[in-house]
């Protein structure tokens, strides 16, 4: 990926240990006396459990315990489901049925845990798990999203009539709906699309794993696992277990990919903690890849119908969206929130759309529960809108570039309040749009298409303007601690999973303190640090933890100035701070920051400081253009060019930023072209349950992304930064699929655009007059 500003890059400090194999991932956190767990999982998508016979397993060599739902009940384990509260349009709360740690009466998806076997070794636990006999009575499952809302569909949960977890709406005020209905009737043109955003598997490089321990003396627990927020995970687990916050420590070290999937509590974690208390020994579990396909939260799985009204000049008048979103078998912490709030807040995007209304139904199905995955509602919204705009260009006869240009919100209109109540603080969408067209050489595309045609290929160009909201929960904390060893420890709640946190936050603190970077040590991933925050989700880390770090540095300097004035016997107003030194103005009398810290600690007034800040959301935006080349003979597709211009506000490290964009684009291309979690509609079995069946993008599928940054500083946080971690995925889906539609006129394929689909579409297009 071309990176502008790479000459300023000073390298990442995280990489050396990882390249040497010195990382500490979930499988590396082994403890003395540790035993191993293996889960018995349901082979059925929907069934009653008539009985469980674990006697043979309990007698097997090396087996220490077999736990079932009865053990979870005896331990007081509550529902794993801890969703963000939401309400339907009529005030009905989100329906969140009980999700057990171990299923007792029914199973509702293939892979749901039913029993936990603990043994001295992994092999012994796995062998014994095969001896657990579960008597199942099959129930007809409901798997496909549209089937689940049919009148005669089986109910996944009795307490959710029609399989509806939530019927949610935005912009459904009577006046607004009347205006939209009127606009649709009176419009010169109305464009309509119906789109499927297929279910996908997160497939992080490191599967989930955890080690649970129990301290009888303190009646307390410890859980070591790969997570994206130790604080959030602790909050959920103490509620599930019914214990106090001080009774659970959560520790996360290195994480091999999260993407939202490793944010929440899972059934396995609660069961492991109960087992650790029962056995008074550390209990370790590491998911296999096959287990991950059946137990890690999956994503997307939506059906969206959208219509856009336009006047005779092609100006947008009103947007109406109706969507179905699969929750899977249970509501996860953010599954419904993603499908509703996260999705709907992006619908205005970079365009001036006077009226917007959205209706979303969150639906239960007998499949693995869905949750956050890179973008988390934003790609789904942008995909629907950008494909709709291309359809509007076809309906109106207006060039798709010109149609977008006419409707872009301008920089002069900032701050801009959308009809759905979101206010953009900054952005220059027309300038980014123009720059992207220039960098992608749109003017020269006709010649490139002609060359492809001469070679027997179909070439298409797709454009995707986008805007997303980054930030999520606004509060985040930070602390600076002086341990007395010549270093300063920066404590954060956000934990890294490849983003370069240690590099960027260490540098930020060092620059603000005016000291060498080597003096700063970043610590994270431990609830005992006592730093509050929501963790590494929602593209929020740099905004929120950056702001908290800046404020904490300010507090340290304020404390230090007061203490330096006392130590130097001067007025506080006469103390300057620069370059790590407190100095009496105009003199050679000074004390270093570390000197003041040492003396302050000796006086019982340490400089250690902690801050909490609240930062409003930011609105990363940009424009991506993709070119594809399709071979009609076999449907194979290549991406010879991909151009990305992104506004992430001030870029603290351009290389890290563009790396995030490139990674996001790769995941978007994966969904657009090959990834699909296919279930058998009759049995509920996951047919794409391994990498033999679930296609992942390879290096040859991902082009060299010609990326550049067009920063417009954010006005609502002290660093002027905007999120960037999800931008690439948000833009890529529509960029790729619009390019395919351009290459094969008259096609409106759903993702993934596999070679078979492309071959059939090319064949059908060649038969059209």
Task: Summarize the structure in words.
With 769 residues, this protein is of the alpha+beta class. Helix 10 packs parallel to helix 11 and helix 18 packs across helix 19 (727-743). Helix content is 30%, strand content 24%. Strand 14 (316-328), helix 10 and strand 15 (355-364) form a beta-alpha-beta unit. Residues 1-7 have low confidence and may be disordered. The longest helix has 28 residues, at 541-568. It contains 20 helices and 28 strands. It starts with 14 loop residues before the first helix and ends with a helix. The protein folds into 4 domains: 144-200 and 299-406, Aldehyde Oxidoreductase, domain 4 (2-Layer Sandwich), CATH 3.30.365.10; 208-297, Aldehyde Oxidoreductase, domain 4 (2-Layer Sandwich); 425-470 and 617-769, Aldehyde Oxidoreductase, domain 4 (2-Layer Sandwich), CATH 3.30.365; 475-614, Aldehyde oxidase/xanthine dehydrogenase, molybdopterin binding domain (Aldehyde Oxidoreductase, domain 4). A 7-stranded mixed beta sheet has the order 3-5-1-12-9-10-11, with helices on both faces. Strands 7-15-14-13-8 form a 5-stranded mixed beta sheet.
